[in-house]
Amino acid sequence: MNNDETYRVGIYLRLSKDEAKDRESASISNQREYIWDYIKENGLTYVDEYVDDGFSGGNFDRDDFNRMIRDIENKRINMVITKDLSRLGRDHIETGYYAERYFPERRIRYVARGDRYDSLDPNSHNILMKFAYNDMYIQDISQKIIEILNTKKKNGLFMGGIAPYGYKRDIANDKHKLIIDEEVKDNIVRIFEMFNNGIGIQSICNKFTDEHILIPSIYQNQPRGNRSTTFGIWKSKTIENIITNPTYMGDLTQRREKKVSYKSKKRIRTNKSEWIIAKGKCPAIVDKETFETAQNIYQKNKNRSKKSHEYLFRGFLYCNECGHTISINEYKWKNNGKEVVKHICNCNYYKKYTRYNVCTPHTLDYDELEKEVLKELKKMCKKYLKTNNFENLLKSNDKTLKIQYNLELKRSRIENEIKMQNACIDKALNDFYKEKITKEVYTRQYNLINDTIKRLIDEKKVIDRELKLLKGKAIGDNKKYSKIIQDYLELNKPTKKLLASLIEKIEIDEKLNVKIYYKIKPLL
Predict the structure, then answer these.
(1) 180 and 165 Cβ atoms separated by less than 8 Å
(2) Is residue 225 scored above 90 in pLDDT?
(3) Superfamily of domain 155-301
(4) CATH code reported for the domain at 8-141
(5) What is the mean pLDDT of the chain?
(6) Residue 383 has what DSSP assignment?
(7) What is the reported pTM?
C-alpha cells in the first residue's frame, strides 16, 4: 500500500506461558521471520522489537508490551506489527481498545499480517468478531483447566500451592497428598480446645500473639505485599478459617476461594455450597466430634460483636413467638454515684422492626435467666444419674452411633435393592425363554439392570469402608461417658462445649416463660 508517511516500526512478538520454553521459543522466531518478510516487502523502517515470551494473551501487564507503549507515548515508533491479532492479546475488550481506540488516537498504524488487518485499509476484515473469538478461546481454556482441577480435587488430590496451616505437602512421595506438620499440629489442637471451652476467637488471637507464635503466612514463608503495622499479629479471620475448615477432621476441603474471573487475579471467598470436600482424604488433626462441636458454637456466635461481653447462653436464646434470636445487651448508668450494670435480653426482630409491631420485647434480666437455667440443668442431670439411665441416653444420642445406625440402615436398603434388581433380571430371562420379549429387549433390560446393580455394589463398598472406620473408633468407651456425666453434674463452671452437647435451644415467650430444648429426651 502506498503512503507518503514514513513509518517507524515496532515488532511485537508474544508467546503464551504454556508454550514458552526455558530459552527463546522457535515460535517467537517464526513470528519474527514472518513479520520481517512484510517489512522488507513494504520497505518499512525497523526501530525496535518487543518480546513477551511466556505471557498469557489475557494479561496486558507484560514487560515488553509496556515498554512498547512507552515508546509510542515518546513518539519513538508510529507503527506496530504482530503476526496476528491474538499475539496482541486475546481479551477482546482490551485488545479492541488498543486496536480501535488507543492506536488510532495516537496515529499509530497497526498491522496484524496473518489476519490481513491493516488499520489504514478500509477493506480490512471486521476485527471485532476475531477479538471476541480470541477472548472466548481463553475463557474456554480457563474453564477446561478449572474442570480438570476440580475433578482432581473431588478425587482427593490436593491441588493448591501451599498446604493449609498444620499440614505440608508430601513432596517426597506424592505432592498432591497432605501430611501433618508435626511442628505446628499442637497449635491447631489448642485452637479447637480453647474455642470449644468458651474462649473467644479474639482471645485466642491475643494469646497466640502474646506467646510469639508465628502467624501462618510467616511460618509458611508466604510472599505478602505491603506489610501493615499489624503484620505478625494473629487475626480473627485466620482462626475462623481454621475452626471452619473440615480438612482438620480429615475431609480434604478445597475451593474455599476462587478468582473473580479468568481476566482477574483477585480472589473471593466461596459459599460453603461451592466447597469441594473429599471425605477421609487427608490425615485428621482433630476428631469429628471436636470439629462438629466447634461448628455448633461458631454458628451460634458468628453474628456477635467481637468486643461484647462473654455470655454463656448467647446463640441459644430464641423468641417463641417469631422464632428469631434473642439478643443480650449491656446497659450502664449511675445511681447515687455508683455505676450499675445490667445485661438485658430482647427479641431481635422486635428491636429491628419496633415501629411495625411485628413482635413484643421479651425483656428480661440475662443474669437471672442464666442462673435459673443452670439450676434447671443441674436438676436434670441429677435426675438422670438417679435413674442410672443417663449414660445409656447419652450413648443413644452419640452422633457417631447415629451415623453408624443410619449407615447400617442404608446398607440394608441397598442389599434389598440388589436382591430386587436380581429378581428383575430373573423375570426378564424367564420372559425371554417364554418368548414374551425378544432377545434385543432382554439384552437391553439386562444391561440397564446390571449397571444399576454395579452402582449399588459400589455404594455398598463405600458404606462398608465407612462402617469399618467408625467401629474402629471405640465409640463405646465408658470413660468418655462417665466424664460427660460428671461434667454435667458439676456444672460449677460450665463451658459452651458442654452446653452445645446438651442443649439444642432455649425459647422465651412473651410472658417470659422459659423452655429448654434438650438434645436428649428429658425426664418428665
Answers:
(1) no
(2) no
(3) Putative Large Serine Recombinase; Chain B, Domain 2 (3.90.1750.20)
(4) 3.40.50.1390
(5) 81
(6) H
(7) 0.45
